[in-house]
Design brief:
Layout (H helix, E strand, L loop, with lengths): L4 H5 L3 E6 L3 H6 L1 E2 L3 H11 L1 H16 L4 E4 H7 L11 H11 L3 E4 L2 E4 L2 E2 L4 H4 L4 H11 L5 H16 L4 H10 L4 H18 L1
Parallel strand pairs: 1-5
Antiparallel strand pairs: 1-3, 2-6, 4-5
Length: 196
């Protein structure tokens, strides 16, 4: 189903609701993760990526859904918006739908909070350096020493109040391999939830 921009543009607001997909939610990446910045940005483009992040930010505040003012949101993102189908905000929403980050529902959009791994067909179009980085990122073999170091660092970061995305970014910046950083964040926050 494609996004009918004329239907959206006929209204000044639309409802944004979460898109529940148990498979992608189990294996996917948070919309604000470094994975999205590195790999989905190449596919979606910067405008659609920031638009998607803004839509998910609203779901953080209102998990069951919220009413989105189209013109106001476009303005906050520095994008043009008009009642026609030819505006940068409308095109960004259409790209989100085209690449499966959102889907039309009656009266609005269902939006993914987690995105799937980038498809092979998209990886094939990326520069070689980005493909190599993706290969390292998705490598599943994690050495015990890497994981132990990552978990120790993550525990300190969590104790200071850092959220999962910030912890992952800091681990990567500290030279922790991507697979170890992701595993450490998952283990640390699962442990924190059990403790609370």
């Amino acid at each position: 189903m494609s996004l009918d921009l004329s239907e959206l543009n006929a209204n000044s607001t639309v409802m944004v609701v979460p898109w529940h997909d148990p498979i992608v939610d189990a294996v996917g990446f948070d919309v604000r993760s470094q994975y999205v910045e590195l790999f989905w940005l190449n596919v979606l483009g910067p405008t659609a990526t920031w638009t998607l992040r803004r839509l998910v930010h609203g779901l953080d505040r209102f998990p069951l859904g919220y009413e989105l003012d189209l013109a106001e949101t476009a303005g906050m993102l520095g994008l043009a918006y008009s009642a026609s189908t030819s505006n940068s905000f409308g095109r960004a929403l259409a790209r989100c739908v085209m690449f499966g980050m959102a889907q039309p529902v009656p009266g609005g959009l269902a939006v993914r909070r987690k995105v799937p791994p980038v498809a092979t067909r998209h990886l094939a179009r990326m520069p070689a350096a980005l493909r190599a980085l993706h290969s390292a990122w998705t490598r599943r073999d994690v050495g015990h020493d890497d994981l132990a170091r990552a978990v120790a660092l993550a525990l300190v970061m969590v104790a200071t109040g850092d959220d999962p995305d910030m912890v992952e970014r800091q681990l990567l910046a500290a030279g922790v391999p991507p697979a170890a950083a992701a595993a450490a964040v998952e283990q640390t926050f699962a442990h924190e939830q059990l403790a609370s």
